[in-house]
Description:
By secondary structure, this protein is an alpha/beta fold. Among the domains are: 1-43 and 105-167 and 236-357, Rossmann fold; 412-449, no CATH class. 30% of the residues lie in helices and 14% in strands. The protein contains twelve helices and 14 strands. It has helices spanning 14-29, 56-63, 83-101, 107-117, 132-135, 186-193, 201-212, 237-249, 265-280, 320-334, 403-410, 421-428; strands spanning 3-6, 33-37, 121-126, 147-148, 155-156, 163-165, 168-175, 181-183, 223-227, 254-258, 295-300, 314-317, 341-346, 357-362. The strands form four sheets. A seven-stranded parallel β-sheet has the order 1-12-11-10-2-3-6, sandwiched between helices. A three-stranded antiparallel β-sheet has the order 8-7-9, covered by helices on one side. Helix 9 links the parallel strand 10 and strand 11. The longest helix is centred in the N-terminal third of the chain and has 19 residues, at 83-101. It is globular and about 75 Å long. The two termini are 22 Å apart. Residues 175, 177-178, 180, 200, 202-203, 221 line the site of zinc ion (ZN).
Amino acid sequence: MTITLDLEASTSDSSSRRTLSSLSSAVAHCKKIVVLTGAGISCSCGIPDFRSSDGLYALVKEQYPDVVLRGRDLFDASLFRDSTSTAVFYTFISQLKVSIDSASPSPTHRFLKTLDSKRKLLRSYTQNIDGLEERAGLVGSSSQEARTNGKGKAKLKAKDVRNVQLHGDIHRVRCTFCSAQFPCTQDHIDHFNRGTPPDCPECAARSAARIARSARALKVGTLRPAIVLYDEPHPLGDDIGSIQSVDIKRKPDMLIIMGTSLKVHGFKKLVKDFAKAVHDSVPSPPTTAKKFAGKVIYVNKTAPGSEWDEIIDYHVEGDSDRWVEKVLKDWKSMKPADWEVQTTLKAKDGDAPGTFRVVKEITNTIGNKGKSGRRKPDSRRENMLPVAVVEPLPSIPQPPSSPGKRRKVNDEDDDDVERSPRKKSREKGRENFHFEERGMLFGNSTNNKATGICSI
Ligand SMILES: [Zn+2]
């Protein structure tokens, strides 16, 4: 049975207050948290609700007064069958991208980054195409950084993908013919705004090379926004399915769902699969060490339907920004050690043996208990950077190996399934999760109203 907790009323209701504190404590103690998000987490970022009459949709209608299109039609793959609806789609996306570009990540996006920095985030999965998670510091699945560059089809590097973009990314474009991907530039936006797609530079280069040697010209594809429409498969669907199955096998100990109405079939399945894995992660009977594990928390302004009774443990009724702020405040008072800045001794490359420097480093103990330094230092991780170097200390005989080196020896990164033969063999027997993408775009595909980034 889902327990509902009213975030606003919690100051006056002591029972809600206690339960909310225990949820904060659970976040502070869990180590493998999966977060699933929808449009609601971007509403506070200034991204307009384009369903409303003064929203972007109205602007597009101004540009195309004779075109009658339902909002949903603007995001259905069938729009490409008609040149006018294709033009409307491009114009609409260009205007949406401009307003997304002027938005900033919300406290909820930054909370995701904090969970990652504190080694608590197993993975974030989002329905949003705005890329605000990446701007908050999480590498997204559409990012170049997350892909291996080799021959043939690029593959996602699971360990680098911190945020899986279930519906693609408005900040990238993809060739309709050869599938080459590029960051979306101002030039692309200008083309889209006029309703005409730019040509693909890779196709154009291949064709030009043939013409140069007097061969026949090749077809040149056009670039389109790299977002996933209704009734079209996700180009990275197989890779995303593999990442999901890896995450489920890792036994996540908490599931947080924020800012989504839970109406879309594919997303509902994702929630149910992860909720089951989270509930199964609780040992029976629960041990003291695991007493915080196994909770499924849903943070949204509206309640989940009754079909979620056995799946969602807690519904936090309210705004996700306010809830994450409360969690962080509670976490800081419950486990201040997680937030301390401390000084450590570290030998610097190039120093004579025995020379130590004092470097300042934010503590990074979460998730590393008993396995100190499991991960390699990573420049992207905000709390790993030494920030100050002061006077060398007097020499001390033979320093131990540096923390960096120890990390390398012990490094056994969770989700890099390609590297370890042991893990490879485990992978072989892996259940092949079929990642269902159809009809997943944007939130509410079950009605025919205009789809909305802010549909919650
Ligand atoms: Zn191309």
